[in-house]
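Sorry to interrupt, but I need a hand with the structure work. It will help me judge whether the discrete encoding reads sensibly. Write everything out right here, beneath this request:
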Amino acid sequence: MSSPTCSDCAHYYQHYIRRQRRFVEIHDGHCVAAPRTKNRTPDTPACDKFLPRPGRT
């Protein structure tokens, strides 16, 4: 199994843009783990504050 990434973490929030009445994922997001919000991409390796997303292994 590969190592976890930010997109696997409960603290990661994906960013979207609106295109022709639909929301589309972009290759960007942010992490809300304390102490501050940090910009991240989905493929960034998970940090020490990693918390698995519910429903994912």
About this structure: The chain has a mean pLDDT of 92. The chain has no helices and three strands.
